[in-house]
Amino acid sequence: MAPLCKRRRTLALALLLALRMRRRLWVHPLNQQRRQQGDFYHLVAELRLDTQRHYQYFRMSAKKMDELLSFVGPELRRQSTNYRAAIEPKQRLAVGLRYLASGESMISLASSYRLGCSTVRDCVHMLCEAIEKVMMEQFIPMPTEEVWKEVAQRFWEKWNFPNCLGALNGKHMAIQAPPKSGSQYLDCKTFSVVLLALVDADYRFRFIQVGDFGSTSDGGVYSGSDLGIAMANGNLNVPPDTTLPGAPHLGEIPFVMVGDAAFPLKTYLMRPYPGKNLPQTKRIFNYRLSRVRMVVENAFGILSARWRILLRRINLQPQRVDTLVVAACILHNFLLSPNESQRWLEENEASGQHLEQVRSMGGNRASKAAQNVRDIFNSYFMSAEGSVPWQSRMV
User: Fold this and answer.
1) Fewer CB atoms < 10 Å away: N or C end of the chain?
2) Do the Cβ atoms of 174 and 276 come closer than 8 Å?
3) What is the CB neighbour count within 10 angstroms for residue 389?
4) What's the rounded Cα separation, in Å, for the pair 98 and 257?
5) Cβ(116)–Cβ(110) under 8 Å?
């Protein structure tokens, strides 16, 4: 019996030592130096003393970062365990924002912040999920009738286009090919998911939908979207038809969205006149329409210039990519400032990189009512009330 008891004590002691070793190695030796060498405790702390460099590193000021933390901080908090202390919300926020802002790999961020790769991945996922959960309703809310009227007024004042609810377009977000997905996510060049967005006169996202397969045509993306269905059913609080400024003789016409040739012509969605050898009146309409459509292109430019992860092939599962893109759009609205928009546009142009457009769906048969609405806009842009001095020169 005695040798047996001794053997049991030896095994128990060995097991205890093994458990202690596992506890010691629960955090990698390099990561145990997090407070002494990690970027969060040194570089990030120093950046708060340098406004310009903080802005370049995180794509936002320290003040806005603190404000963002007040929104998402509770969602980033985790309970410490006996094995290791939880990463504090401030550090999770810093890691997640740096991933969005730089497009660095998670391995690179793990090394610089002295964190495990799985921890960095969790930081990114937790931040994006928290932003969507906590901030979506406040920063991309469902517009009321009064809000739509304000949006239309801004388009008239800023872009000389009346009764406009927003500029509509879609963009591809490149992703790593998901396993066993076949060609669902494959467009003509790369694997991707589609962001469909409606943007107001000040580059603010009013509607977004993310996640359609890259192989889906623009017509399929729009017709299957919540926006397309709600507009067709009249469920979006759109104001009733009204006259164009200074032209009651043209009658009341609907409020409309504007899109390029990839979208169908509807009474509530204007697209250019098709063809090359068009009369000047129609070319002027197409110019006036394209001028407004640049709003959504500019919004995408600002979005990708600020969050450079969108210029890279995102190596996450498609569902995670969807959440990341939604979070980036919410942050876009949260940070949007007229004084900074031009700066981001110039940076995007200087980078020489652009988010890819969704493919055109080709021609479509439009209703007589939709064609009539477009013709009324055309007449208005040629009238004294609706023309602008430079339009003839531009065509």
Assistant:
1) N
2) no
3) 6
4) 35
5) yes
* Pairing between β-strand 256-258 and β-strand 164-174 as defined by DSSP bridges: parallel
Nearest Cα neighbor of 324 from 308, 336, 344 is 308
94-134 per-position pLDDT tens digit: 999 999 999 999 999 999 999 989 999 999 999 999 999 99
Q: Please tell me the total number of residues recorded for the chain in this structure.
A: 395
The pair of three-digit structure tokens given for residue 162, joined into one six-digit string: 């009346």
Q: If you average pLDDT over residues 307-319, what whole number do you get?
A: 93
pLDDT of residue 9: 61
Distance, in Å, from the CA atom of 321 to the CA atom of 192, rounded to the nearest integer, reads: 10
C-alpha pair distances (Å), 84 with each of 26, 78, 93, 230, 276: 8, 11, 19, 49, 67
pLDDT of 252-301, one tens digit each?
Answer: 999 999 999 989 999 999 999 999 899 999 999 999 999 999 999 999 99
Report the pLDDT averaged over residues 203-215.
91
Could you tell me the pLDDT band of residue 21, with boundaries at 50, 70 and 90?
very low
| Residue 129 CB partners (closer than 8 Å, separation 6+) | 75, 323, 327
Where are the chain's structural domains?
Answer: 34-138, 145-394
The set of residues, in sequence order, having a beta carbon less than 8 Å from that of 166 and lying 6+ positions away, is 151, 198, 199, 200, 206, 207, 257, 258, 295, 296
Residue with the two structure tokens 């479509």: 364
Helix axes 117-139, 318-335, angle to 10 degrees: 50
Q: E-assigned strands of the chain?
A: 164-174, 192-199, 205-213, 242-244, 247-253, 256-258, 269-270, 356-357
321, 135 in Cβ contact below 8 A? no
The radius of gyration computed from the CA coordinates of the chain, to the nearest angstrom, equals 27
* Nearest by Cα to 262 from 213, 223, 295, 235: 223
